[in-house]
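Lab meeting prep.
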Amino acid sequence: MVHAFLIHTLRAPNLEDTGLCRVLYSCVFGAEKSPDDPRSHGAERDRLFRKEQILAVARQVESLCRLQQQAAGCSSTDLQPQFSAEPVSLHEAPHGAFHLAAGDPFQEPRTVLWLGILSLGFALVLDTHENLLLAERTLRLLARLLLDHLRLLTPAVSTGAAYCRAHPSR
């Protein structure tokens, strides 16, 4: 089961930018109560609790994306959006999956599948037993459809790829 879908900002590694990761959109499917208190909280407190959980996932995705880009040998200039006539390729975009232990930040263990495109992070929070191949294809399809709808993948409007392309000399 998918527990959440989120879109958030990604920053390039090695930049002086001290801005925080921002969640641009999130949708949580199902409710999870605060782990320390079985009694019912107000709707506002539950909303803030879910917001904190989603922000924790977004920060971990951003951290892993930056780590993957640095490990690939990308410099900060390689990760800046470039003006280009080439369409953005979703197959070259950084992606991955990681496991969240119970209590960090959800009560149950979860798997997070993520994709980084054009300084945006897309993530699905899943049950640990979900089919990751199917979930990855679904996430790529969602990202492509959203970016197509916003006209971010077309060469005329695109600000370029915000992910590292391997240098031939490396």
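Slide two material, second protein:
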Amino acid sequence: STLGYVTVTRAADGFGYYWDVTFATFSGDVPMLVAGSSLTGTGTSLDVTEQTRGVAPRHDHVIGSLVTGVPYDVRVSAANVDVGYGATTQTEQNIGIGVVPLQETVATQPSAPTISSLEAISSSQVALQFTAPSSNGNAIDSYRVEWFTAVNSYEEKVVTQSGGLYGSFMLELDGEWTVPIAYDASAAALEHALEQLIGVTDVQVTRSDATDGYDWTVIFVQEVGDVSPVGVED
């Protein structure tokens, strides 16, 4: 069965009975059961109600309070209520399954440089000097200098999720995919996922309620002009 194992208890209820059904191994919300009845007698009825909506376990976790620039090893294991914890992800990694490497250095994109001087040196040239920003964990290996004449116009995109009660989705920009993003991710979580993409320098994200879901408004605040379409996969 696609619903796995269930446990059922029965108790008397006036002149009838009620059966309490728990879906013991199915993760997430189960579709409502449809009742069909051939009961006989006076005032018979058969009803199905949902007492507790199932919620799928999350498969993501943010590890906090780490030190910038320090490498950390990460592993995950799963537990059964009655049996305990099984093998860790390190067991799978050792035979080439999963993400490699197991170790990750705590780092983010560098902070913004500071322009210290900007001076015209000819009729067609200006000299620019800036100070190096904090590397935030990884050495800085290049800089990008941009100039333009148009008034800043930042691209704004809206990601809409509707009807999702659990699970995750991924976003794609210029051929690069984000990590899985929870169906109810906060604005900060979606912003963090996008800013891990090589082609994204800085975005601002806000989240608002939508019909049966959420809208995330994404503003590419360091990308002046048109930004490539954002793809989605759920």
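Talking points for slide two:
The chain has a mean pLDDT of 84.
The helical segments are 89-93, 187-195.
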